[in-house]
Amino acid sequence: MNKQNKKDLVVKLTPKLKASKSIVFVNFAGLSVSLQQKLKLELKAIGSDMTVVKNTLIKRAGKEAKINDAVLTDEVLSGQTALILSESDAIAPIQVIGKFAKENMVPQFKVGIVEGNLQDKDALIKISTLPTKDVLYSQLIGSLMSPMYGLVGTLNGNMQKLLFVLKEVSTRG
Which of 61, 80, 88, 95 maximizes the CB count within 10 A of its CB? Predict the structure, then answer.
């Protein structure tokens, strides 16, 4: 890649970094080409993008995008690094990578920035095991509705007992 192509790549990557709700750095060493393509398709299906770029170019684009310096260290940007960027849902790509890594043992999380907050490897693994937003919403609704269902059940039970007593009285009399 010549010098101009590198500059063009940095110019193209910088706005993507700025616009992303989540930026996840993963080590994809050991990921075969077919598995890499499969992961890219899974990420694309949820509106995310996996980009493999040289670490030095990631560092340049990250500095221009004003990304936290803790992410752009030589420790993080060493080895085979891929960027997973998501402009829509910040959590979904982390869940996809977590599930994919569980099935295939690669890639491995390095660090990430989720909605402006720096996340280390352990935090990303925890996030990857969370249920989806829809599941969390339905659990919340269920939790909010359960006392009402209990109240209705209790009131119906008392009504049924009253009806039973009235029937007994009417049949005796």
Answer: 61
